[in-house]
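Chapter review: from sequence to fold.
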Amino acid sequence: MINLDTAQLVQTPFKHFAIKDCLAKSAGDKLLQWFETAAVWKDQEIPDFYSMNVLELTDAELPQDIGWINHPDCLRSVRSDLERLFSRKLLGAIKIDAHIMTPGHRIGIHTDFGSTKMTHRLVIQLNRGWAVSNGGRLVLLPERSPEESKEKQKIYFPLHCSAVGFEISDRSYHAVTPILSGERYTLRYSVEE
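The token string follows.
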């Protein structure tokens, strides 16, 4: 299961945490293998903003060895960890999906605030052998203009089995740099209001 025990909340550029090895490598490898070989992805795009392929997993019937991702015990654990880290009671449902981004895909700067009914998000990265030259870094910004806030940005490399969690607000600006090569996979847990 997902282990966020050693995660520490960071306040800048907005409330978030990042943790390496939130999954056992064997669990991450099995999930990544399923993503690569058996998952049925759907295209999703908003021109000039983002493009990716998406997989809805909240109510999906999954193979037994990866069925933990939407099991009630896992959801309770994710909720409990997010409540502990953000010092806030979270009452809404948890939506689970996954993304694959391939060369040319990117996500522009946005907050998700107002466009969704989500309050918090946990993003687990599943990328075997990812190199800096592949692109696809997650960038957290204190404001919409990246040039004016470079020194306050946080950039997270998509290491296999790592995670970033954050509060969704009108200040939670984030983006994913263009994918230059390879396939970048993420598993997302989003808590509704």
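Two observations follow directly from the output. The chain has one domain: 16-37+61-192. The two ends are 24 Å apart (CA to CA).
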